[in-house]
Amino acid sequence: MFKTIAIAVAFSLSAMATVKIEKTNFKGWPNSYRITNGEIELIVTTDVGPRVMHYGFVGGRNVFKEFTEMLGKSGETAWQARGGHRIWAAPEDAVKTYALDNGPVHISIKGDMVELTQPVESLTGLEKQITVKLAPHGTAVDVIHQIKNTRQPVRLAAWALTMMAQGGIGIHGFPPRGTHPKDLAPTNPLVMWAFTDLSDKRWQFTKKYMMLHQDPNNHEQPQKLGSFNTHTWGAYLLGSDLFIKHYEADPKRAFTDLGASFETFTNADFLELETLGPVTDLGTGQSLQHVERWTLHKNVHIPEWTDATLDRVLLPLVAK
After folding, report:
1. C-alpha distances in angstroms, 214 versus 69, 172, 222, 223?
2. Dihedral sign from CA coordinates of 194, 217, 265, 176
3. CATH classification at residue 243
4. Alpha carbons 274 and 114: distance in angstroms, whole number
5. For the chain, how many structural domains are there in total?
6. Could you tell me the sign of the dihedral formed by the alpha carbons of 197, 200, 206, 209, in that order?
7. Structural domain boundaries enclosing 278
8. Is residue 24 part of a domain?
């Protein structure tokens, strides 16, 4: 009987878990907001952005990169990396991609959702928005990106970039593997950049997975690769915390960067997990959406980088 009551109470408390949103000063940005359900917390700021600057367990580390010297500042005349998570438009352009996001953004709190909207960029005519929706319990977060075009028709794709803290390992799963001669059709591209060097020791591959190690002491050429997976996901193991981001890619649509729905990049400062949406033609006043789902898991250990171990440790978490 007592066990039944205890279970009922635990279920009741779980069902009652709610999302709390409160204004806070985040490292010099006074107009920031903490979003938490008691287990996980995110921090967004309205002083610049839109950016999600913090994601981690309550009382735990931020798994996102923070450029300490850029925190708490605004109004710069050049684009700032800062850290955290942002939304861009692909393909990359040396000028338009780096449109400034150094000024205030509008915030709208709708129940358990926080919506951050940047003023229309004077350089591009695009209005970028990030909406964060945290589950009432657990670590799941829906991150909804929107890009609206306010000028002449334009062709672009959503590009969601998450900058991870130093010292971890990025992981990407390829689409299901097969055998020859049974499976003759190609399954996915592996996209390279002119600076990609597959002999760089930061890369590691198995049959099913691609790993990229973030090394704060490696100041050689940055590294980057892209791939496509209908069930796109990227993960980052930082100590024993594992961050996972998911995106469902439509294989019937065209994708930029030679067909990539996922890209990963690293230098000495951070590692980036990036998802890309399909190429879309936006008329004046039209917008597109791009949705990622994040989860965070603690006490994750990967003793060896083999398919068998990665299947055993990662796949149950990726499926959540």
Report:
1. 20, 14, 10, 10
2. positive
3. 2.70.98
4. 22
5. 1
6. negative
7. 65-318
8. no
The rounded distance, in Å, linking the Cα atoms of 244 and 137 is 17
Distance between CA atoms of 80 and 74, rounded to whole angstroms? 9
- Average pLDDT, integer, range 132-139: 97
Please identify which residue in the block is written with the tokens 């593997």.
177
Calpha distance 320→140 (Å, rounded): 9
Using the Cα atoms of residue 294, residue 299, residue 304 and residue 310 in order, give the sign of their dihedral.
negative
- Block residue for tokens 């670590």: 139
105, 117 Cβ separation under 8 angstroms? yes
Whether residue 4 lies inside any domain: the answer is: no
Contacts (Cβ under 8 Å, ≥6 apart) of 47:
29, 30, 31, 32, 74, 104
Cα dist. 146→3, 128, 204, 235, 275 in Å? 47, 6, 34, 23, 14
Beta bridge partners of 303: none
Q: Is residue 240 part of a domain?
A: yes
Question: 27-62 burial, b if ≥16 CB within 10 A, otherwise e?
Answer: eebebbbbbbbeebbbbbbbbbbbbbbbbbbeeeeb
The model carries a pTM of: 0.94
pLDDT band (50, 70, 90) for residue 17: low
H or E element, residue 24? strand 20-26
| Per-residue model confidence as pLDDT tens digits over 181-226 | 999 999 999 999 999 999 999 999 999 999 999 999 999 999 999 9
Distance CA 124, CA 96 (A): 6
Q: Which two tokens stand for residue 294?
A: 């994040």
Tell me if the bond preceding 189 is cis, omega within 30° of 0. Answer: no
At 140, the amino acid letter reads A
Residue 14 lies in a domain: no
Joined together, the tokens standing for residue 155 give: 């062709």
